[in-house]
Amino acid sequence: MRCRKCGSEIRSEMKFCPVCGSTLQLQQDAVETDRAVKNPQVKRWVICGVILLVLVVGIGAFLDQLLRTFHPVIERQPDVAMMTMYRDEQIRSTPVQAVMTDGKIGVPLRSVQEHKLVRFFDPEKQQDVPIIAYITPQGKLVTAMSKSEQCGSTDFFLSGNNIHCALCPSYWNMASMEAYACCQRFYPDPVPSSVLGDMVVIDPVAVRQWQSRF
Q: Which of 13, 134, 174, 185 could form a Cys-Cys staple with 117, CB 3.0–4.6 A?
């Protein structure tokens, strides 16, 4: 080690510098005091860095959903809710009874808003494949044929910003239908719908003429 005052080489057991006579213990105390002063500053910088990182990640996720590219059919769907972030818990589909209203297949909008994801059938039984309805994190209403032809599943659940197959590991972004696993093409196929009063209504032709993509 070296003396901090004159730079001469000294042994660790020495108490005084043999060249300048400086007290080595005082030098050591000064070093420890300097470390004690710097440590809280380092901790503050680390904490600030972690907070900044969390904010950047959170803002990035928010903007990712806000600026999400929509599936062409979903892009034209009506906005029926405020923008929201779904939690990572699984939201299973709730069966509801559809009715024919003014020649269209209809389910209550309130049911979709309350249950987050509803599943129903053509009330006139001309289409065997069920239909689902949900609201994207951006607030858009989605109605889609509830089938993934690759694995044969006819049920799904929501988690985070994605819609998951209830039978296999496949899942897709709720707004863009971008795939994150297998079944790239076999997401629940969106069909156009609108809101009439307090009902979500779908043209039965779009449902009954739907064909498998497999």
A: 134
H helix runs in 85-196, sequence order: 109-115
CA neighbor of 116 nearest in space, from 96, 98, 130, 99 = 96
pTM of the model: 0.68
Per CATH, the homologous superfamily of domain 72-208 is: Rieske [2Fe-2S] iron-sulphur domain (2.102.10.10)
Q: What is the pLDDT of residues 73-86, one digit of tens each?
A: 999 999 999 877 78
Q: What is the chain's Cα-based Rg?
A: 31
Closest CA to 131 of 114, 144, 113: 144
CA within 13 Å, CB half, 183: 24
115: CB partners within 8 A, 6+ apart: 94, 96
